[in-house]
Design brief:
4 helices, mainly alpha, 106 residues, transmembrane transporter activity, Small_drug/metabolite_transptr, Small_multidrug_res, membrane, flat
């Protein structure tokens, strides 16, 4: 895996972090979760921008969003007690398959 893909993976993980931080910030009304959210947002965007210097924009953006969506949904279920249903899990598998397919394609 080259540096662009590693940067994209970390950017996606930071997207998960800022999405959860956004929830914890309560609409940016809590100081430390808000600061955490802004820092992880900036890191995520900077790493995405770095990755897109060499990766196709459609692939890079879709993988970034997919990692963020899957990770946030899974952690929402595990940490926040969000519903776990077969349809939700199946949908996450479909997104993950798309991420893998995009990685293999480009």
């Amino acid at each position: 895996m080259n540096a662009s893909w590693i940067a994209l993976l970390i950017a996606g993980l930071l997207e998960v972090a800022w999405a959860l931080g956004l929830k914890a910030s309560d609409g940016f009304t809590r100081l430390w979760p808000s600061i955490f959210t802004l820092i992880t947002m900036a890191g995520s965007f900077l790493l995405l921008a770095y990755a897109l210097r060499t990766l196709p924009v459609g692939t890079g953006y879709a993988v970034w969003v997919g990692i963020g969506a899957c990770g946030t949904a899974l952690l929402g279920m595990v940490l926040l007690g969000e519903p776990v249903t077969p349809l939700r899990l199946g949908s996450l598998v479909a997104i993950a398959a798309g991420i893998i397919g995009l990685k293999l394609a480009g």
